[in-house]
Structures are given as structure tokens and as C-alpha cells.
Specification:
Layout (H helix, E strand, L loop, with lengths): L4 H34 L6 H12 L5 H8 L3 H13 L3 E5 L7 E5 L1 H22 L4 H26 L1
Antiparallel strand pairs: 1-2
Length: 159
Amino acid sequence: MSTTPRRRETASALATFQAFMTLFGSIRQVMKTRMQDDGGHALGPVHLRALSLCQRHAGWTQQQLGQAMGRDKGQITRLLRELEEQGYLARSPDEQDRRVWRLHVTPSGEKACAWFLSIEASLATDLFGKLGAQEREQLLQLLSGVQERLGAGQDEATG
């Protein structure tokens, strides 16, 4: 039984997708385990990712954070409320538009971000440290292209 080039392409794309999802799941699990073993914070990776983005982009809005994380308004609202209740994040009204809230990391949040960054850096070194600079750049370009296609696919689905 012969397969068409289209079927081979689809099968190859599916195998790549499945390998990526397996790898992604494994990385998430290792990250969670390292965070638990270190015992630094009760926050999960998603909370710490949001907090780190707010640290990197001080004054971002809830909408900007949601777009960066690929999460809907309700998910981001809950996430921010939890971070604020635990004292890691503060919201302040925008000076020009009082309906918009600006996000700022508190000193406790800064400490949590530093802890999370150290765990991320350790895992990144373990995963990518033996790759050469050119290999890392190539991987980054490939992943950026995948991210762009994912964004384009979401735009088409909602547009």
C-alpha cells in the first residue's frame, strides 16, 4: 500500500507534534518537581510566569498580560486576583484612563521572581547548555515560527 506525499507529510507533522507535546509535558513535570523540591513558594508555574512577565514589563495591563500568556480574560482575572491576595502583585489605575489597571510586582513578588528565574535558568542550562550558540539560535527561530503560526491560526479562528 503506497502513501501519498500529503499523507506522509501529515504523518510526519503529527509525529513531530506528538514528540513536542511529550517533551513539553516532561519539561513541565521536571519544572514542577524542582519547584517542589526547592520548597520556595506555594505558587505554581503559571502564577510565577505571569508574575515574571509583570516584572519584566512593569505597568502592563491585564489585557497585555493575557495576550502574552495566551489566556482569556477570566483566567487572567483569577490569576491576578490570587497574586494580589497573596501580596505578590499590586494594581494601580492608569493615569489617563481610570478604567485600566496597571500591574506592578511587590517586593515579595520580586523575591518570588528571582527564585523562579534561578530554577528556570538551571533547567535551561540542563536542557540547552550543551547546544552551540548557532544551534540555540536555530531552535529559537524554529520555535518563534511555530509560535507565529499558532497566533495566525488563532486569528483565523476568531476572525
